[in-house]
């Protein structure tokens, strides 16, 4: 079975190192048997989540669209910058909206339940965004995702890539490859049922 895996970067910035790392993950996953989906936050603009807003107007349209895309996946790679030792608000907000979805095409669904999630980051600093990744773990578990242990935090972002866009450091490249392999393997073994809608 070919697992369905999506990649989402936690930044919309055009020069984002995390978007660049997400594209490298897409290149590597493109060489495997996975069915790959790239999700760009620029395609899903949403207001800050507010319970009163939801009660008055319902789930935001882009929250519904994102939830549907996620619900059709077996796995998700989050490539996220670290903001003040935590998560970027734009991606957290998107997940907050998507997690409120309970029905898609008239059928009950929880978009993140059983979804296999891998975490990666890249940062100019020595930590590589590790604190942000640790902050993502309880968030994703709280919405029902299965977060794999293997993760990758790439330091010194300015020197991290070679001319072709691959990770320049051999050890870091092996760590990144191992994380992707784990995501594929666990997504395949825990594949979700997609005939639910």
UniProtKB/TrEMBL annotation:
SUPFAM superfamilies, alphabetized: Flavoproteins
NADPH-dependent FMN reductase-like domain: residues covered: 3-157
Alphabetical list of Gene3D superfamilies matching this protein: 3.40.50.360
Coiled coil: none
InterPro entries assigned: Flavoprotein-like_sf, FMN_Rdtase-like_dom, NAD(P)H-dep_reductase
One term of GO molecular function: FMN binding
Domain of life of the native organism: Bacteria
Name of the protein: NAD(P)H-dependent oxidoreductase
């Amino acid at each position: 079975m070919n697992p369905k895996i999506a990649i989402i970067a936690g930044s919309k910035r055009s020069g984002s190192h995390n978007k660049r790392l997400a594209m490298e993950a897409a290149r590597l996953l493109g060489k495997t048997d996975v069915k790959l989906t790239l999700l760009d936050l620029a395609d899903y603009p949403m207001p800050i989540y507010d319970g009163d807003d939801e009660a008055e107007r319902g789930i935001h349209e882009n929250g519904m669209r994102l939830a549907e895309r996620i619900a059709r996946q077996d796995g998700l790679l989050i490539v996220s910058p670290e903001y003040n030792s935590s998560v970027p608000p734009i991606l957290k907000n998107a997940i907050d909206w998507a997690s409120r979805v309970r029905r898609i095409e008239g059928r009950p669904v929880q978009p993140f339940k059983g979804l296999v999630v891998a975490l990666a980051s890249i940062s100019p600093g020595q930590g590589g965004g590790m604190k942000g990744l640790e902050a993502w773990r309880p968030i994703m578990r709280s919405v029902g995702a299965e977060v794999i242990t293997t993760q990758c935090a790439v330091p010194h972002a300015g020197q991290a890539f070679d001319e072709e866009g691959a990770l320049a450091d051999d050890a870091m490249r092996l760590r990144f490859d191992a994380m992707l392999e784990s995501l594929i393997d666990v997504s395949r073994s825990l594949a979700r049922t997609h005939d639910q809608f």
